[in-house]
Amino acid sequence: MSAAQNSTSPAAMETDEVPIEVENDKLEIISGSHNDHTSMTFSLKDEDHTLGNALRYMIMKNPEVDYCGYSIPHPSEAKMNIRVQTTDRTSAIEVMDKGLQDLIDLCTVVVDAFKAEVSNGDFEYDEDAVWP
Amino acid sequence: MDLSGAPYGSLGTLSGPSITIQELKKDRISFILTETDLSVANSLRRVMIAEVPTIAIDMVEIETNTTVLADEFIAHRLGMIPIDSTDVERIKYTRDCTCSQYCSECSVELTLHVKCTEDRTKIVTSKDLVSNNPQFQPVVEDKNDQGILIVKLRKGHELKLKCIAKKGVAKEHAKWSPVSGVAFEYDPYNKLRHTHYWIEEDAGKEWPVSGNAKLEAEPNPDAPFDYNAKPDRFYIETETVGSLKPEDVVSMGMKTLLDKLGYVQMQLKEELASHQQDQTGWSY
To answer: Which positions in chain B touch A5 (Cβ < 8 Å)?
Structure first.
């Protein structure tokens, strides 16, 4: 990614999940063949199997996707690469965005289901019981 | 994505993920997550272990230590003490804070001063730690809990120190993990053959099925292997160290995962916008 592109992005955003350093290049598109927006490799900083595998699964669910795979190139580099190849009806960025949105929707469903279940209270509950 | 229907038509009968809580105790929760993929269930497991923020002692300034244990040994023991992190959201990460080193916005100060003046052994426990913020106290199980032993003192021994507890995640150090363990199981009868057992004589005798098997129908041993089957029922049980409630660990775990995804999505949009500004088009 060129320096010019970097400067267009606003100042580093801080979120809870990122350890230690201030970041400004969470996501990077690794250059591949020119003008081919159907195949891309996204390099995500400070991410691992937690995001990689679930995202890979979600992207692969999309019928417009020919290939999606992820790898962590080196264990001591906090970095995860995710490769997307799509049909020419869409673009890799679009598919990536859809994958992320789908996973967000899925997680939201899980959170809501969990919260509903907790407030429903239809389970064995014992406030004081600890370490039997 | 329509999770109530059949997204992409390829999920077949999937009706969207659901959760059934089986048991909720003060320090543990067990639930069944169904109709999701293994990767999603595993993300939840991973995020609960390593990415739910808690408070733990991170820096120790020792003023006096005439005990039998070395300074660094005591500092390490202090780090492992769980601190009630129910209000962890009110504390910032030190790296996000505007202060130069640490302040009350991004840390909790705990002090300890114990001296043994009697002839018998005096024990120093997590209960001797005095917090400057009542919301963040070392975890006490119940009235009978005597606290976590830090060191034992003989007559004349003294320990005086100041601890700085900070917010963090277990990805950096396991002391920040809110859980002591997560049990994760699917397919207790091994119908999918993801597990390969070492068998001496009789598989049934040597590998008794787990408790979760009671919740599934026993498979017909003559049934042909279904090579298309995918795991879709996950038995998860997590036990906390006491710093967070078990139900909060699960929901905060999912929230962390959502935050991560949202952040990546935002970055992707930015990347896309910066490309579209570039009139030459796709030029990397």
So the answer is: 271, 274-275, 278
Q: What distances in angstroms separate CA B147 from CA A92, B137, B259, one per listed residue?
A: 55, 12, 35
Band the pLDDT of B16: cuts 50, 70, 90. confident
In terms of domains, do B64 and B163 share one?
yes
Q: CA of A102: which chain B residue's CA is closest? A: B1
**Out of B26, B43, B259, whose CB is closest to A50?**
B43
- Average pLDDT for B17-36: 93
Task: Report the 10 Å Cβ neighbour count for B199.
Answer: 11
Q: Which domain holds residue B244?
A: 1-52+177-192+228-260
User: Does B54 contact A at CB distance below 8 Å?
Assistant: no
* Structural domain contains residue B268: no
Would you call A16 an interface residue with chain B, using a CB distance cutoff of 8 Å?
Answer: yes
At A5, the pLDDT band (50, 70, 90 cuts) reads very low
Q: How many CB pairs under 8 A join A and B?
A: 195
H or E segment and range at residue B159: strand B158-168
Residue A125 placed within a domain: no
Domain assignment present for B12: yes
- Give chain A positions within 8 Å (CB) of B9: 63
Q: With the C-alpha atoms ordered B257, B258, B262, B265, is the resulting torsion angle positive or negative? A: positive
pLDDT (average), residues B216-230:
93
Residues on chain B touching A48 (C-beta within 8 angstroms): 46
Q: Domain of A100: which CATH number?
A: 3.30.1360.10
Q: What is the mean pLDDT of chain B?
A: 91
Q: Is residue A72 part of a domain?
A: yes
